Amino acid sequence: MLEIVIADDEPAARRRLKRLLAGNPSVSIVGEFADGASAIEGIRRLRPDVALLDIQMPERDGLEVAEAV
Known about the structure:
Layout: E1 2-7, H1 11-22, E2 27-33, H2 36-46, E3 50-53, H3 62-68
């Protein structure tokens, strides 16, 4: 199973991504984050296979998150 985290400051965007991925039985969403700082901590803790990162988020943007992890 592919473990995925979603990091986006917009709840509607997170819901939309979850809805798109829900139909795939080989995908598991293991975490959701609304800002870059919590995304960094969560990705380090959960160690997902994939992180879907919003580019513009509070605290740290998606590119900074990718660089940090």
